[in-house]
Design goal:
Elements: E1 3-21, E2 24-38, E3 42-47, H1 60-77, H2 83-90, H3 97-115, H4 119-123, E4 129-131, E5 133-136, H5 142-155, E6 159-163, H6 170-180, E7 184-188, H7 198-202, E8 212-213, H8 221-228, E9 235-237, H9 244-253, E10 258-261, H10 269-281, E11 286-288, H11 295-305, E12 337-339, H12 352-358, E13 359-366
Parallel strand pairs: 5-6, 6-7, 7-8, 8-9, 9-10, 10-11
Antiparallel strand pairs: 1-2, 1-13, 2-3, 4-12
The structure holds N-succinyl methionine (SMG) and magnesium ion (MG).
Magnesium ion binds near residues 213 and 238.
């Protein structure tokens, strides 16, 4: 396959409601989309980097910059190109996994469209639909939170994840557990605590949570292992798991019993599959995380979430949990599940008018 050019497109989409985490509040999503035009077919990728480097060190302007300066020229020089070769070609460039993942996704989509194979089939999916959870914002009051959770449960979401931070942890968890009884419930701290908070976090133990996600800094793998010896709630890592090697190390150190897999965070869907395989080999359940993706990224996430090791509901919510109007046909919840796309490649295309409406800039990089 030969790369004729890459289009970098920025879109700006309002969220249906503010999404507050321990590191900030999002009211819009400024997304970098990648369209790879090859001699065979066109493919789409979505970069999950956010505007500010608060979830991780990556941010969307830097992703666009590193793609233009280093990654796209490296891909243009490659003798042969296909999805599997992208990570190899880009491997001399350190870090910038979200940028790499978006390029890999676009090239893989083009390749699979040409071959007539879906992402699900290529990755090894074994389910036609996946059970969905929802990640719930930090709110101004417990009453407001209970209303939001009530609404999500009424829509059919099978698992609730509460974002927590110091000052918003035991009380909201206790209130949700008390009001909604035996639901699947978990929390995500986005690195807002430290080992000094171990006894506070131990106060979550009585609430039978499925897991606590990333309580400590992404580099504090040993701290998570120490916490695991103090509290009974299973620890799940998100930000710390940047590769299959990082997953193998964290598991070996006893730092996590569950892993959140986000293809963007780990450099792409093929590395995400390797993490899945490492976890399955170690008996560690995985689930698919989310980065407020549009329908483009969501389509591919659903394919990944249909692999056999994804035994917990993911943050793969329906389009209307995020956006009034998605840039693809909307993904909808049916009996708590979303159907895995079956079309070639990621199986979806942007709706041209909607895409144009949200577009703030496009740049065409000709390579042919
Ligand atoms: O896509 O539903 C989604 C968001 C899920 O909570 C979510 N993501 O740490 O897991 C996480 C966060 C990262 C993004 S927060 C803006
Ligand atoms: Mg998380």
């Amino acid at each position: 396959m030969r790369l004729d050019g890459i289009e970098l497109r920025r879109i700006d989409m309002p969220l249906v409601a503010p999404f507050r985490t321990s590191f900030g509040t999002e009211t819009r999503r400024d997304v970098l989309l990648v369209r790879a035009v090859t001699d065979a077919a066109e493919g789409w990728g979505e970069c999950v980097a956010m505007v500010d480097p608060l979830y991780s060190s990556e941010y969307v302007d830097a992703a666009a910059d590193v793609m233009k300066r280093f990654m796209i020229p490296a891909l243009a020089e490659a003798d042969r190109l296909d999805g599997a070769r992208v990570a190899h070609i880009l491997s001399p460039l350190r870090g910038h996994r979200m940028a790499k993942a978006a390029l890999e996704m676009a090239v893989l989509d083009a390749e699979l469209k040409e071959k007539g194979i879906s992402f699900a089939r290529e990755l090894g999916a074994v389910h036609d639909r996946v059970p969905c959870g929802v990640s719930v914002s930090i709110m101004d009051s417990v009453a407001e939170l209970l209303d939001a959770v009530d609404g999500y449960l009424a829509e059919g979401y099978q698992r609730i994840k509460l974002k927590i931070e110091p000052g918003w942890d035991v009380e909201p968890v206790a209130a949700v557990r008390e009001k909604f009884g035996d639901i699947l419930l978990q929390v995500d701290a986005n690195a807002a605590y430290s080992l000094a908070d171990a006894s506070l976090l131990g106060r979550l133990d009585p609430f039978d949570l499925l897991l606590i996600e990333q309580p400590f800094d992404e580099e504090d793998v040993r701290g998570h292992a120490q916490l695991a010896r103090i509290i009974s709630t299973p620890i799940c890592l998100d930000e710390s798991i940047t590769s299959a090697r990082a997953a193998a190390d964290a598991i070996a150190l006893g730092a996590c019993r569950i892993v959140n897999i986000k293809p963007g965070r780990v450099g792409g869907y093929l590395e995400a599959r390797r993490i899945h395989d490492v976890c399955v080999a170690n008996g560690v359940p995985v689930w698919c995380g989310g980065m407020l993706e549009t329908g483009i990224g969501r389509a591919a996430n659903l394919a990944l979430a249909a692999l056999p090791g994804f035994t917990l509901p993911g943050d793969t919510s329906a389009s209307d949990r995020y956006y009034q109007k998605d840039i693809t046909d909307p993904f909808t919840l049916d009996d708590g599940h979303i159907a895995v796309p079956t079309g070639d490649g990621i199986g979806v295309e942007p709706v041209v008018d909607i895409l144009e409406e949200y577009t703030t800039s496009t740049e065409w990089i000709a390579l042919g």
